[in-house]
Structures are given as C-alpha cells and as structure tokens.
Sequence to fold (507 residues):
Amino acid sequence: MNAALNIPYRMGAALLLIADQTGGIAIMAGQVVRRLVPPRIDRYELFRNAYRMGVQSVPIIAATAGFTGALMVIQGAPIVERYNARNIIGWSAMFTTFRELGPLLIALMFNGRVGANNTAELGTMVVTEQIDGLRALAIDPITYLVVPRYLSIAIMMTALVIIGDFVAILGAMGMAWGILDVWPRQFYYSAMPMLQTWDFSVGVIKGFFYGNMIALTSCYFGLSTRGGAPGVGRSVNASVVAAASGVFIVDYLSTFILH
Amino acid sequence: MTITFRNIHKAFGPKKVLQGVSFTVRDGECFFIVGASGVGKSVLIKHLVGLLRPDDGDIFLDDTEVSRLTEREFYEVRKKCAMVFQSSTLFDSMTCEQNVALPLRKHMGLTMKDALTEARERLSQVHMSHFATAYPAEIGDGMRKRVAIARALTLKPSYVLFDEPTTSLDPVSARRTDVMIRELCDQFGVTSIVVSHDLVSIFGIADRIAMLYQGNVRLLGTREDFKNTDDPVVRQFMSGEAEGPMQV
Fold:
C-alpha cells in the first residue's frame, strides 16, 4: 500500500475496531438488561462471584485506599505548613478522595484484579469449548455466566468504594497526625463542616458506573475470545485497556453531570 | 424418530468442509461417523444442536426442520439431544458433582442439595462416585469423559451425540464406554451418533457407519459393508496404511 495512504488506512481500521467493540459492549448491555426484566439470576453463581470478586478484593482495595488518603495529605503538607492551614487538611484530603481519586484508583485496581481475571476465565471457557458445552446443555451463557458476574462486579465495586472511602480517611488521618501533628479529632472536625453528603455520594455513584463499565467490558472481551491461549492473552490485554479507558471517559462525563 | 441431514454445506472462509452431506439416522440406532482428521465429522454433529449453522441444506429431527431455529428455540432441541464433546467441556470452577448437578438445577428445578444428591447417583452409574468432589483438573482424561457422559445423560435425552468418546482413553475404559453407548441404544432406545476413529469401537458396536471423505459421504453401510467394500479409499482408512489413494 502507498505509504501516504497507510496512516489513514490504519486510523480507519482502528476506528472501525473501536466502533465494533463499542457496539458489541452495547449489545451485551442490552442482553443483560433483557434478562434482568424479570430477573433471571442464578443465586449460587451470584454469591460465588460476589465473594471471590468483592470480598476477596477487600485487602488490596483497602491498601489502595489507605495509601491514596495518606498521599493526599503528603501532597498537601507543604502548602499547609507554608500557610499554617492545618484546619483545611482534613477537608482537602477527604474531598479529593471521596469525589475523585478514591473511586478512580479503586476502579483501576479492581479492573486489574477482577476485570482481567473475569476476561481470562470467560476467554478460557470459550477456547476450551466450555461455553459450547453450556449451550449444548440448553443453558444460556448470558443468563448463567454474564448476569451474575455483571451484578457482582457492579454491586461489589460500589461497596468497595464505600469501604475504600473509610479506609482512605483512616490513612489520611494517620498521615496528618504523623507529619503535620494534626490529631485525628482535629482532622475530623476540620473536615466535617465543609464536607457534604453529596461529596461522598458522588464517589459512590461513580463507583457504580465504573463497575458497570468494568463488568460489561470484561464479559464482552471474554466471550469474544478467539484463537486459543494467545487469544485469551489478547482479550485480557484489550479488556484491561478498554475498561480503563472507559472508566476515564465515564469519570469525565460523570464529573460534569454530578458536579 | 429419525435424524436426517440433507445436502449440508459448510465452509469456513475459503475452506469448504461439508459439500452436500446427506444421510438418515434411524430410531434407536448406534450410528458411527468416521473419516480422517479435519474432514468435518465434529462440524457435522454440531449442526444438529445448533452450535454451528449450515451454509445450505436442511436438518430434520423428529420431522422438524431444526437448522433454521433461533438460539432460544434450539434449547428445547438440546434438552432431548445431548452432546458429549471430545474435550469433555466440564466446567473447571465446579467439582464433578456440581457439573452433573447443573442441568438438574436448571431444567428440573431441583435445589442445590437435591441436585447434588441426584448427581452423586448419576456419577455412581459411570463408576465416578469416589471422585464426586474432585475438580476436573484433578482427574484424568478418561474420568473427565465419564463425568461428561453422566452430565449429558442427566436430562434423559432421546438422542446423544458422542464426539470421539474413546479418544485418549486406555483400552479398558474405551471398551467400557463402548458398552455404555451400546446399552443406551439397546436398553433405553436412545439414538446415538458417534464420531470416532477407533476401529475397535466401530466394528464392535456400530449398527451403521458413514465415512466422510472430501466433504461428502464416501460409504454408508453396516459393519459388513465396510469389511467387504472394494473402495480403495475406504479400505485404506480401515487398514490404516500410510500409502494409498486417500488424500488428507
């Protein structure tokens, strides 16, 4: 191909691929919604997935949130010391963590742990014919596999944001006490008058949206896997990148809407 | 109660796998499909349960044309036409008993507890009750295949499709599997279609045999027809000789 045409050709191909994948994710969302009205959920699969995706993620999410809270204080410490503004360190750390950084970093960590695992598991089931085996047993793979995973990821992501927010507060309090000599009580009461319930709610709502994005993307790429073990690797890679990109896009849009 | 494939065509890209395959499987018959690797045997039986759709041609099951059914409509076909895959397709995340319990829970409305009790009973019929709580990764190929057979038979299907059921089994397990397939036909009236390369199985339990070659049926007949044929391609396949007219 002519070198001059190569770049637009590749750009066009990439755009078509993105359109194809976005359409596929939208179709999967429609299929999931169809099976939720009325709800047809395998409770056993739902609880099994909620446990391994959500409960088992608590330690790593708590660590992420704790460090995030602490980092907010470390970043703000020089300014606080320069202007002797210890009475705003609690608010600034909690406001930023609740509204933005907490849900975002938890989502990225959750995507790496749960989204990637979900894609790999579904992809392996495709290439080892387990999905065909399910269909041959007259069991709908979307109802049996995707719906419980979708609900588990969306619900547990939301729950993890709430847990993460509290751990982030503890991390920030601990760091403020350690490097700024701001006592936890002082930290707490400096933040509360300025913080609103909505600040906390925005992060939780975002967490739910991020969970939806990770669930649909990881299930779509898993079930679209072709080409054996290398195909599973490609799907996991594409899923993690697409879900992370989707999280940032959702973050951008929801920040405008929920401002 | 018959299965009829009529003029089935199937291609994957430029590769034409099936080019007008036609035959009928009779009620209660143990019907074998044989042929070289890659000739389209597994592809053909996957059409019957809607895992693949023909490019052209019709498939009749109990006088119902099934090849144009929707995925949802195929679920009723799959309940009476079970399939045992070459790779077993047991679910890795479940124990053997949970694998067998799955269709019982989903289609017979049993609770998990009742389904597991029933599943253990089904596993004992294939001599796998001692491995009920093992995961598929913890047992051998032959054992996995037996669990897959137990799972496929949970809904008491009228038809069972076996995709290379004796491949990778030791000779004793292979013959036990043959006996089980034959018993399904003789005692329960189940119609079985078996894809196989195993000559001992073929000449041991088949009622009739169809040999696929170059996208079509080369010979359809009884065991005696295959033993006495003059067709050099069929004779080479049956003797397993490297040299001959057969193109692979």
In short: The CA atoms of residues 103 and 206 of chain A lie 7 Å apart. The first helix of chain A runs from residue 3 to 36. Chain A has nine helices and no strands.
